[in-house]
Amino acid sequence: MLKIAYDPIYAHPLPEGHRFPMLKYELIPAQLLHEGVITEDNLFSPEPLDEEIILWTHDKHYWEQLRDQTLSAKEIRRTGFPLSPKLVEREIRIAKGTIDGCHYAFEHGVAFNVAGGTHHAGSNWGEGFCLLNDQAIAANYLLNNNLTKSILIIDLDVHQGNGTAQIFENEPRVFTFSTHGANNFPYRKEISDLDIPFPDDTGDEEFLNTLYQTLPKLIAQQQPDFIFYLSGVDVLATDKLGKLSLTREGCRARDEFVLQQCHQNNIPVQVSMGGGYSPNIKDIVEAHCNTYKAAADIFF
Questions:
Q1: CA–CA separation, 140 vs 136, rounded Å?
Q2: 246 — phi, psi (to 5°)?
Q3: pLDDT tens sequence across 212-250
Q4: pLDDT score of 81
Q5: How far apart are CA 208 and CA 253, in angstroms?
Q6: In the beta sheet, which residues pair with residue 113?
Q7: What φ, ψ does residue 105 adopt, rounded to 5°?
Q8: Contacts of 74 by beta carbon, 8 Å cutoff, 6+ apart
Q9: CA-CA to 295 of 20 to 30 Å: which in 11, 41, 71, 83?
């Protein structure tokens, strides 16, 4: 069964006037339910994450400032959000949903988190709508519990996974792979194990051909026993923050290829949704829903 982490807090942690980026988190499961792709049985609501597990990934001082709402005004501005206890609760539930998704992926091959993909959060900073790095937390959870020996993080969001790269820069058991817009946020890039920056206006053909040539070789070389996939749809030509030019069909072909590679190599995969900022919310929701549909077709 396809299991999907979702909680209403994903969609409503912000005051009025800041909610547009969050609307997709309630619309995605609603659309999948409406189309009959999933039922309520596919959805699960994660509990908050234990502090001990957060500290396997994030600096203790940073976490305590976040938890206690004592970040400086500059640090809060860097996150892009007005800080609140409810927003922090949202982040720790997202991280727990990604960890729970790992267990479901071991059982079913694939699992999703409607939110997540908070890849700009480093060990001691929040940035770009990311406070805690859900996939990094989950990767360290798997390693610390001896559930896996080699992890591949595939980050195909339009923005570099700078926080993820920084967290695992000295961890040989985690290979970080990021494709992203060369001229996009974050403007100070970290160094992933493999970075592929694309020029502005890169379209389906160049993006997909690069992925087709790179990912199978990478899996063969690294031989991961678990994969995290960050499937941001801010690669779309319609995205107001993206600068790349993928079509919706190209974005779906991207997802299908990644998920097919996981399936045919018998590697469990946890998928977090990442970014999407097209002005028309329908473009965002449909592209994200296509990722779920691809997984349902390939794995079930």
A1: 6
A2: -75, 145
A3: 999 999 999 999 999 999 999 999 999 998 899 999 999
A4: 84
A5: 8
A6: 5, 272
A7: -65, -40
A8: none
A9: 11
Per the listing, tokens 């403007």 go with 187
Q: Measured between alpha carbons, how far is 15 from 83 in angstroms, rounded to an integer?
A: 10
Helix residue ranges, H only, the chain: 23-35, 51-54, 60-67, 73-79, 85-108, 134-144, 162-167, 204-222, 248-264, 281-299
Residue 256 token pair: 């299908």
- The DSSP result for 214-235, as a single string, is HHHHHHHHH--SEEEEE---TT
Tally Cβ neighbours within 10 Å of residue 290: 20
Amino acid at 181: G
Q: CA 300 to CA 186: how far, in whole Å? A: 37
Structural domains in the chain? 3-299 (3.40.800.20)
Around Cβ 247, how many Cβ atoms within 10 Å? 15
Inter-residue contact 2 to 110 (CB < 8 Å) = yes
Query: CA-to-CA distance for 85 and 214, rounded, in angstroms?
Result: 41
| Cα(259)–Cα(298) distance, integer angstroms | 7
16: exposed, middle or buried (C-beta count within 10 Å: 0-12, 13-18, 19+)?
A: exposed
pLDDT for res 20? 56
Average pLDDT over residues 263-283: 95
* Cα 136 from Cα 164, distance rounded (Å): 6
CA 157 to CA 205: how far, in whole Å?
Answer: 17
Judged by DSSP in three states, 202 sits in coil
**Phi–psi pair at 112, nearest 5 degrees:** -125, 155
3-state secondary structure of 124: coil
